[in-house]
Amino acid sequence: MLRQQKFLIRHPTGILEDGRDITLVMVLKILEEELVKIKEAVGEQAYNDGRYEEAAELFKSLIEQDEFTEFLTLPGYKKLA
To answer: InterPro entries, per this entry (predicted)?
Structure first.
């Protein structure tokens, strides 16, 4: 994800075709919905063995910040270490 995309989630300027603003609340709801879909697609065991929840938490922490993270990969590298 580009830094600008992350910033736009936090500070919405995007509008959907139906006129709704793209908001942080909307993105977090979609994130939760997508996690459910992933769990259904891969199965509960594979989901629990994977790092889906951890990845989602990392994504949430990045988009909830008020300022840009200079290098988005750095928080990910810290999680992998």
So the answer is: Malate_synth_C_sf, Malate_synth_sf, MS_C
pTM listed for this prediction: 0.72
Range of the domain at 19: 3-80
Number of domain units in the chain: 1
Residue 1 in contact with residue 68, Cβ under 8 Å? Answer: no
- Residue 68 belongs to a domain with what CATH number? 1.20.1220.12
Structure tokens at 44: 């509960």
Q: Please tell me the distance from the alpha carbon of residue 49 to that of residue 69, in angstroms, as a whole number.
A: 28
How far apart are alpha carbons 46 and 38 in whole angstroms? 10
